[in-house]
Amino acid sequence: MFASSLNLARGSTRILATRMASLAPGQRYDLVVFGATGFTGQYVVEEVARVAEKERTERKTPLTWAIAGRSEKKLQSSLVEARKELGLSLDDVGIILADVKDNDSLKDMAAKSSVVINCVGPYQLFGEPVVQACIENGASHVDISGEPQFLEGMQAKYHKAAEEAGVHIVGACGYDSIPAEMGLVHMIKNFKGELNSAEMFVRTKSSKTTSVHTGTMESAALAVANRNEITRIRRELFPIPLPKPKHKIKKKGVLHKNEELGVWGVPLPTDEPVVYRTQRYRYEVLGQRPLQFQQFIGLRSPFQGVGLLIGMAYFTFLCFFSWTRKLLLKYPEVMTAGVFSRAGSDRESLKALRFTATLVGHGWSESLLDGSDQHTEPPNASIKVKVSGPDPGYGATSLMMVASAMTILREKSSIPGKGGVLTPGVAFMNTGLIKRMEDQGMTVEVVE
């Protein structure tokens, strides 16, 4: 028994040594998936494998990549699962042992990476050491955080250092907030005139019942718990407010009907802070008119809206107080009636789920010379853009995250500036990210 275990350990060491030997001294992997053994991380590993195979067979451009995490055994299991799902060998995938609580291991990982794909959340708890290690060791970084405290905190603290290091730190590269950001990029490029505002309505459709993994719940709970911190960060980031628009978009109530789309909307402003940061860049750096943006969940009936509002109020209550938050984090399935679960949804259920984000923009058919100039007449033109894809939490999120990392890797010269902490809308406004997303199964289109 002991001899058998010893041989297995030696075998694992040889596997690791063999894989690491393929990386020459001073060489970096193109992509490293950190947190590859987590629920989302598994989907990201499989998406990188698909992209790497396509790069090899269609573009004839080899892609070197590795997976990183605390346990070699679990990392091996992640590759076994990916092989089973994809039918690819994955024998050339590197393995790096790294722990978010071990700064030396993070530095070693970053030094071996061109772009780190960080899947370890909640980012408010575990994100900063990874960002810092990347900046100090010359690696760019993408994540799927939807936590404004983390995203804006990293910009306030590390933008200058990232710029000096020549690396790009781009957060919110998943369902939060790529559909909104790239939907607006596509809208601006295709609108003949000058946009004033946009509203986004997100809908999901599935033939099966699904649950959300508790990792998403934990990030949302922390965002609510630390809500007061964001005020301090924003005072530091944005001491001067944007100019007030003459034609201000009307604020909607907690439940309203959009007649253009025929859907009922409930406000869920998760992408609004990211979009706001992008619009500040457009105004302050590019001299363009900042867009006003509002975001909603789209529903078929007002009764669905009322039910959703009750559910959101209940979840906010649970997150608001420390004792209820502890109960939520300890018993998520019970406290949310199965909406959130530690197991998450099975693959077949997720394959039956799809999302659509429809953005409705309004503006003027003619542009003014400067972004600070004001139109005298109200908006007289409109445009609709639809972004759609597979299940938003994992399928589409992994697709968009990997596409973002590939864009940094392959199109670094098209990203504004030599580095910095950027939003997706700033980083990818002049790149082929949308084409990469479409190549992997999503659609971004102007609709009538």
TrEMBL record:
The keyword Zinc-finger appears for this protein: no
One GO cellular component, as annotated: plasma membrane
Organism: Penaeus vannamei
SUPFAM superfamilies: NAD(P)-binding Rossmann-fold domains
Alphabetized UniProt keyword annotations: Membrane, Transmembrane, Transmembrane helix
Key word Kinase present: no
Name listed for the protein in its UniProt record: Saccharopine dehydrogenase NADP binding domain-containing protein
GO biological process, one term: glycolipid biosynthetic process
